[in-house]
Write a structure and sequence with these properties.
The chain is mostly helical. It has one domain (2-127). Helices cover 74% and strands 0% of the residues. The protein has helices at residues 2-20, 25-49, 52-73, 85-106, 108-118, 123-127. The longest helix has 25 residues, at 25-49.
């Protein structure tokens, strides 16, 4: 449930920061947040879980966000990106879910442990990284 609510929060944030907040400030704030949160989450994920594809998905999302942050600081904001900039966004939108799907198949036991762990978590736990369990060495 927390993951779904976090997804909704991302969607609302995306609309607010790309449509309501003046540009390019809104995009700089939005992509700056994800440029910080996702690599930090990737480091925590690797340390606590050892799940390579989830870690890679977070790192890739962070890299994509950093690229979009750089574009926003130069005045090129979503959705008014240059055609070649869409490759950056498109690659992230394809590869991140693909990496998560691969992880769910390659490491099913840990994936299920994580899903059980998430049952008691909320959106704030996701924002603060407390949603990532310690399952690297069998703990949770």
């Amino acid at each position: 449930m927390a993951s779904a609510l976090y997804g909704i929060l991302i969607g609302i944030s995306f609309l607010v920061f790309t449509r309501v907040v003046p540009q390019p400030l809104g995009s700089i704030i939005l992509w700056g947040f994800f440029s910080a949160q996702l690599p930090w989450g990737a480091a925590i994920c690797w340390r606590r879980t050892g799940l390579a594809f989830v870690t890679a998905a977070m790192a890739l999302g962070g890299a994509m966000s950093a690229g979009l942050l750089v574009l926003a600081t130069t005045g090129r904001v979503f959705p008014s990106l240059l055609p070649e900039s869409w490759v950056l966004l498109g690659a992230g939108l394809v590869m991140v879910p693909l990496f998560l799907l691969i992880e769910s198949q390659v490491n099913r036991a840990k994936w299920k442990q994580w899903a059980r762990y998430m049952e008691s978590k909320n959106v704030w736990d996701i924002v603060t990284g407390r949603h990532i369990p310690q399952i690297r060495n069998g703990g949770a």
